[in-house]
């Protein structure tokens, strides 16, 4: 089932240069999609367009789900860990509406928040201050917050940034489990997500090049203009005389 369709999307902040150009992408309900690419290539802009934080100017984004069915987990680099808020209170923010801000949370909201924490392996941490948790534990809390809206898709922006290797693996294993019922879209520089978790990859560097990891080609066509981490990984173990060329072109992506 389709979750999202992006058609002929272009975007520019100023008229001098386009951030995204002629982007086309289809996201389906069972996808675990990794969005990769260089800094400044347009990954975050694409995410903001999908979320509706930026308005499309050219092309279209067709959503086959309601806005409230799209969960979002931002980077936690700007989090004020000294703010006195508990893990449960953070998750309850996933239930905030104009009505809830006035009247508070219902009993079922609190139970839902506790269940979400249990889903991400954080049962028993409800009353722990967010600043007392490790980076990986905090990220689990943010994922639990996204789960409160019963999403059909969760978008995550660099979910393993500033987390140790053990914590990174735990986050991706959690996302793998959630992917049984929820579409997962991850913006990441982490090559391990390509190796072990993603089913599909979108390389974004102004233009978008789509890869299905189930059908990735075995041979490298050295006449192609595009070459990124996906082709590089597929080239491993092949002829040594193509490795230098492969690495040289991959550095341009």
Question: Can you characterise this structure?
Answer:
With about 250 residues, this protein is α/β, with parallel strands linked by helices. The chain has nine helices and nine strands. Helix 4 (about 105-120) packs across helix 5 (about 135-145) and helix 5 runs parallel beside helix 6. The longest helix is centred in the C-terminal third of the chain and has 14 residues, at about 165-180. Mean pLDDT is about 85; it is low at about 215-225 and about 235-253.
The N- and C-terminal alpha carbons lie at a distance of 31 Å
The description of the largest β-sheet is:
6 strands, mixed
| Envelope shape | globular
Helix percentage: 25-40%
Structural class: alpha/beta
**Cα gyration radius (Å):** 20 Å
SSE run = EEEHEEHHHHEHEHEEHH
Number of strands: 9
What would the average pLDDT be, to the nearest integer? 83
Cross-sheet strand order for the largest sheet: 5-6-7-3-8-9
The total of helices stands at 9
Q: Report strand %.
A: 15-25%
Could you list the spans in which at least 5 consecutive residues all have pLDDT below 50? 217-223, 237-253
């Amino acid at each position: 089932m389709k979750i999202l369709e992006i058609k002929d999307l272009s975007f520019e902040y100023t008229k001098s240069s386009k951030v995204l150009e002629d982007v086309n992408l289809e996201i389906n309900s069972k996808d675990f999609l990794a969005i990769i690419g260089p800094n400044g290539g347009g990954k975050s802009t694409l995410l903001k367009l999908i979320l509706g934080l930026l308005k499309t100017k050219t092309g279209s984004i067709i959503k086959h789900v309601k806005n409230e069915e799209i969960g979002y987990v931002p980077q936690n680099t700007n989090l004020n860990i000294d703010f006195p808020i508990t893990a449960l209170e953070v998750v309850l923010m996933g239930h905030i509406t104009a009505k809830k801000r006035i009247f508070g949370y219902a009993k079922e909201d609190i139970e839902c928040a506790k269940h979400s924490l249990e889903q991400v392996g954080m049962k028993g941490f409800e009353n722990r201050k967010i600043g007392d948790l490790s980076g990986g534990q905090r990220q689990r809390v943010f994922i639990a917050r996204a789960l409160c809206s019963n999403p059909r898709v969760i978008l995550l922006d660099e979910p393993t940034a500033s987390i140790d290797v053990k914590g990174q693996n735990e986050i991706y294993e959690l996302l793998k489990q959630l992917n049984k019922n929820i579409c997962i879209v991850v913006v990441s520089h982490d090559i391990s997500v390509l190796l072990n978790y993603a089913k599909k990859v979108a390389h974004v560097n102004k233009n978008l090049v789509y890869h299905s990891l189930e059908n990735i080609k075995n041979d490298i066509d050295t006449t192609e203009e595009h070459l990124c981490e996906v082709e590089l990984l597929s080239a491993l173990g092949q002829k040594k005389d193509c490795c230098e060329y492969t690495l040289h072109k991959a550095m341009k992506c």
